[in-house]
């Protein structure tokens, strides 16, 4: 399995993700078998999870389900890191050794959960045979990347070790101030059990009877492309704090249909309202979703003819400066979305204040765009009429509208009629991007945990760096920045990384993804978060 095959789903579908809750006893949803007055929270998603194998999960749909049926060493909820299966932990004075002390807990089938399960989970995640994405998230763990890249084959050399059944030790090569946030907000580190994984092989977690978990809820049913049912896990160590009897996720691809279900009481919480309907919900709230959308360029080109254009930085800048991001955000972006002129999220206020950077003008600069284009044409020795076809690959859904807006700007501002749009179903679009069968793609990536997060993806040999940009200078700059302990010095080094990426990299910032949501007044305790699962319903309640 190729690494990272689902990352491009992560935020691109957010405009179509709608959700809700209800109780079957009130006759307003809940589905078959939810009678008897039980509190069943029913919500919807625009697509089903790519996988519920936590080591391979990378998309928001998977993360959201796994957040509710699993629990890691720590749990990030409401943007705070709380104890999970580890009831406490120690960090050495040098920041290099984390010792986690696990509470007594069991899997959903009653088997005791131990530190050995977590050791297996981390090492399986790093095992190149697993094909996990974003292994760079824990590249600070001793020998993590050497093991993942096959430079060493002895997993015992990786810095994760169960000292006994209830003590896990993780050793780092350099301090990472947000390490607990990383392992608490990424689903890859939710535990998997070796005997169950080996029993089901490639079918592990494909259905409800092929997985065991340890979270507040368990997976009762997965009717693919239709419905996922979770029920309260009575074996969960903190079961007394869970008020819901279950959560049902319905797969509703059409956002207007889901909105109508909300209006009729079938769904009672919409985590993302269609832009065209926002005026219908005066009580809606807006939030950033924690991700950055970027124009991603394949520097190798989809064809030999397009490669010279894609590898030309001035051509890429021409495409970027031709866009009026303010107008696009106002016209077609999901409510709550903000135009992006640089890569770092607005939530990192201290960094942005200390390191101001103009980036791309949000209103665009047509004269500058045409200037960049002419420089590129001179460098390529071509006229506009001689330019080869460029393939813009997009996903079904909102990305189709984005693609048409971008294409229109490139025609109107630059006179480029050679950019062809190809809209594909989500899996095919992802596969094409992985295989570098594209020239331009609208990429969306989570970047809310740390200033460095976005830059981590693009190091040479990165697991989702499908751009052909293997810049050793950039990689060294990033790695050196990540080894700096002093926060101010680290931010300055990351600012140099940001500027280098902006001036040389295969990306152009586009939008900070946002969404608008609404909750009926009888639903309480749902948390919206830019870190980890977007909708956190563990402590939700229904009072009708």
Note down, in words, how this protein is organized.
This protein folds into two domains: 9-268 and 520-542, Periplasmic binding protein-like II (D-Maltodextrin-Binding Protein, domain 2), CATH 3.40.190.10; 289-515, Dipeptide-binding Protein, Domain 3 (Dipeptide-binding Protein, domain 3), CATH 3.10.105. It is 28% helix and 21% strand. It has helices spanning 9-12, 60-69, 115-126, 144-148, 179-185, 194-200, 255-263, 307-310, 313-321, 325-332, 349-354, 366-380, 398-414, 426-434, 453-456, 472-482, 487-504, and strands at residues 40-45, 74-77, 80-83, 86-91, 97-102, 160-164, 167-171, 217-223, 227-232, 246-251, 269-270, 285-297, 338-339, 390-395, 419-424, 440-446, 507-519, 523-524, 527-528, 535-536, 541-542. A hairpin with a 2-residue loop joins β2 and β3. The protein is globular.
Global structural class: alpha+beta
- CATH arch. level architecture of the largest domain: 3-Layer(aba) Sandwich
| Quantity of strands, as a count | 21
Beta-strand share of residues: 15-25%
> Counting H and I runs of at least 4 residues, what is the number of helices?
17
Biggest sheet architecture: 7 strands, mixed
Query: Class of the largest domain, according to the CATH hierarchy?
Result: Alpha Beta
CATH topology (level 3) name of the largest domain: D-Maltodextrin-Binding Protein, domain 2
Large-scale geometry: globular
Helical amount? 25-40%
């Amino acid at each position: 399995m190729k690494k990272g095959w689902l990352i491009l789903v992560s935020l691109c579908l957010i405009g179509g993700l709608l959700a809700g809750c209800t109780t079957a006893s009130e006759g307003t949803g809940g589905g078959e078998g939810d009678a008897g007055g039980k509190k069943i929270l029913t919500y919807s998603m625009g697509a089903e999870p790519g996988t519920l194998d936590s080591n391979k999960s990378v998309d928001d749909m998977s993360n959201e389900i796994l957040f509710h049926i699993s629990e890691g060493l720590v749990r990030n909820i409401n943007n705070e890191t709380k104890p999970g299966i580890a009831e406490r932990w120690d960090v050495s004075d040098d920041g290099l050794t984390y010792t986690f002390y696990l509470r007594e807990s069991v899997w959903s089938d009653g088997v005791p959960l131990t530190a050995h399960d977590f050791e297996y989970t981390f090492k399986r995640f790093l095992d190149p045979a697993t094909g996990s994405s974003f292994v760079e998230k824990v590249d600070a763990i001793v020998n993590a990347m050497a093991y993942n890249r096959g430079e060493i084959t002895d997993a015992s050399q990786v810095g994760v070790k169960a000292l006994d059944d209830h003590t896990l030790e993780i050793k780092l090569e350099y301090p990472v101030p947000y390490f607990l946030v990383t392992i608490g907000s990424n689903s890859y580190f939710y535990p998997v059990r070796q005997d169950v994984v080996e029993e089901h092989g490639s079918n592990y977690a494909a259905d409800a009877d092929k997985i065991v978990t340890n979270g507040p809820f368990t997976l009762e049913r997965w009717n693919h492309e239709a419905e996922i049912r979770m029920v309260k896990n009575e074996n969960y160590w903190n079961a007394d704090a869970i008020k819901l009897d279950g959560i049902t996720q319905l797969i509703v691809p059409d956002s207007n249909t889901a909105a109508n279900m909300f209006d009729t009481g079938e769904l009672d919480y919409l985590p993302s309202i269609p832009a065209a309907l926002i005026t219908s919900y005066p009580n809606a709230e807006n939030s950033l979703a924690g991700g950055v959308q970027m124009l991603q360029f394949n520097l190798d080109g989809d064809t030999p003819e397009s490669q010279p254009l894609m590898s030309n930085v001035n051509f890429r800048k021409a495409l970027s400066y031709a866009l009026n991001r303010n107008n696009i955000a106002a016209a077609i972006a999901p409510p709550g979305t903000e135009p992006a002129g640089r890569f770092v999220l607005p939530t990192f206020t201290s960094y942005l204040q200390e390191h101001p950077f103009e980036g791309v003008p949000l209103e665009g600069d047509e004269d500058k765009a045409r200037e960049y284009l002419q420089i590129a044409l001179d460098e390529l020795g071509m006229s506009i009429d001689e330019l080869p076809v460029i393939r813009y690959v997009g996903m079904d859904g909102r990305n189709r509208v984005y693609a048409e807006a971008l294409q229109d700007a490139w025609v109107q501002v630059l006179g480029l009629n050679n950019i062809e749009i190809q809209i594909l179903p989500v899996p095919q679009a992802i596969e094409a991007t992985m295989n570098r069968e594209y020239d331009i793609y609208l990429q969306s990536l989570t970047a809310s945990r740390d200033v460095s997060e976005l830059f981590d993806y693009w190091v040479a040999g990165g697991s989702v760096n499908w751009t052909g940009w293997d810049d050793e200078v950039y990689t060294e700059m990033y790695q050196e920045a990540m080894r700096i302990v002093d926060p101010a010095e680290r931010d300055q080094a990351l600012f140099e990384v940001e500027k280098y990426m902006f001036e040389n990299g295969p990306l152009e910032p586009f939008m900070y993804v946002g969404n608008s949501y609404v909750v009926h007044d009888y639903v309480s305790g749902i948390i919206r978060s830019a870190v980890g699962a977007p909708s956190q319903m563990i402590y939700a309640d229904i009072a009708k």
